[in-house]
Design a protein that fits this description.
Elements: E1 5-8, H1 14-23, E2 25-28, H2 35-42, E3 46-51, H3 58-62, E4 69-72, H4 82-87, E5 91-93, H5 100-115, H6 118-126, E6 146-150, H7 154-165, E7 169-173, E8 183-184, H8 188-194, E9 197-200, H9 214-220, E10 225-228, H10 237-245, E11 251-254, H11 265-268, E12 273-275, H12 284-304, H13 315-321
Parallel strand pairs: 1-2, 1-3, 3-4, 4-5, 6-7, 6-9, 7-8, 9-10, 10-11, 11-12
Helix pairs in contact: 1-12, 5-7, 8-9
The structure holds 2-keto-D-gluconic acid.
2-keto-D-gluconic acid binds near residues 52, 75, 76, 99 and 281.
């Protein structure tokens, strides 16, 4: 039997590249001299795409008439139009679960850096200022505070468990309440009003775009801390810069940005913002585990017809295949 052909549109995690090469014919589109010509020539052979950040919309899918599966690297898949894929009978998979602890660790690290000004204090030491005077006391402490989690999924729960160990109380807002002991708020505005720390873990995409706006930041208030480890698009970045500048909120810790890797210049100028270059899941073991799950989704699709981790837009398709 001939080996299935997998298209990789852009540069990709090494575990994926090595793992796929063992059992599939691979087209590395980003290395082609004329990617459009190559795509047109090979389109009829391509039955799967492995991707890690390329935009895959209806127009792209229409260029691949034989496509069956899009295996995406990462838990968030906002760059892929999974509904358009489902309409065309194409299943999308992502890499949930294997990165929960890593992202939760980053979230807590970012919270500590922000509340206790740890990166600013380190800059103070390196600048040689300590012998003159000790670093000023921080206004915020984490003890006895309440964290509101926007998007209590698997990563949100991993963050909640860690935060509880710090003595932080947990509340959350989802579309529907879950069977958990944490207090549920039916609206984001009520959650932001009730908590000291707003932790964003909700998926990106059109549905959640600019959910955190001026009104929400005002509700969070002058002692409030915003942490975002999800997608930059969830926050209206202009409104956030203004809120940090005018002390409408105390501070923000951000691992993600609306136009990353470009960062709003207004954020770069602010001392009450801690900024990380999207490192939530960025360790070698976790990225390898994510890469292996991409490979495993492809392999199981071709060997059993049942991908391991289809996204929710694809579940009906998968069920129909097995009925
Ligand atoms: C990665 C992420 O940075 O999984 C996600 O949704 O945002 C991160 O784990 C991203 O997948 C890298 O491409």
């Amino acid at each position: 039997m001939s080996r299935p052909t997998v298209l990789i549109p852009g540069p990709m995690n090494k575990t994926v590249l090595t793992g796929i090469a063992e059992n599939f014919d691979v087209i590395r589109l980003w290395e082609a001299d004329d990617p459009d010509a190559l795509l047109a020539e090979r389109a009829k052979d391509i039955t799967a795409v492995a991707t890690g950040g390329t935009t895959i919309d209806g127009a792209f899918l229409d260029r691949l008439p034989a496509l069956q599966l899009v295996a995406s690297f990462g838990v968030g898949y906002d760059k892929i139009d999974a509904a358009a894929a489902a309409e065309r009978g194409v299943i999308v998979t992502n890499t949930p679960g294997v990165l929960d602890d890593e992202v939760a660790d980053t979230a807590l690290g970012l919270l500590l850096m922000t509340a206790r000004e740890l990166s600013r204090a380190e800059r103070y030491l390196r600048a040689g200022s300590w012998p003159e005077r000790g670093y000023p006391l921080t206004k915020a402490t984490l003890s006895g505070r309440t964290m509101g989690i926007l998007g209590l999924g698997r990563i949100g729960e991993a963050i909640a468990h860690r935060a509880e160990a710090f003595g932080i109380s947990i509340a959350y807002h989802n579309r529907h309440p879950k069977d958990v002991a944490y207090r549920y708020y039916p609206t984001l505005l009520e959650l932001a009003t009730a908590v000291d720390i707003l932790m964003i873990v909700i998926p990106g995409g059109d549905e959640t775009r600019h959910l955190v706006n001026t009104e929400i930041l005002q509700a969070l208030g002058p002692d409030g801390i915003l942490i975002n480890v999800a997608r930059g698009t969830v926050v209206d970045e202009e409104a956030l810069v203004e809120a940090l500048h005018s002390n409408t909120i105390l501070s923000a810790g951000l691992d993600v940005f609306e136009h990353e890797p470009k960062v709003h210049p207004g954020l770069l100028d602010l001392d009450n913002a801690v900024l990380l270059p999207h490192v939530g899941s960025a360790t070698t073991p976790t990225r390898n585990a994510m890469g292996q799950l991409v490979v495993d989704n492809l392999t199981t699709w071709y060997t059993t017809g049942a991908p391991l981790t289809p996204v929710h837009e694809s579940t009906a398709l998968v069920q129909n295949l097995h009925n």
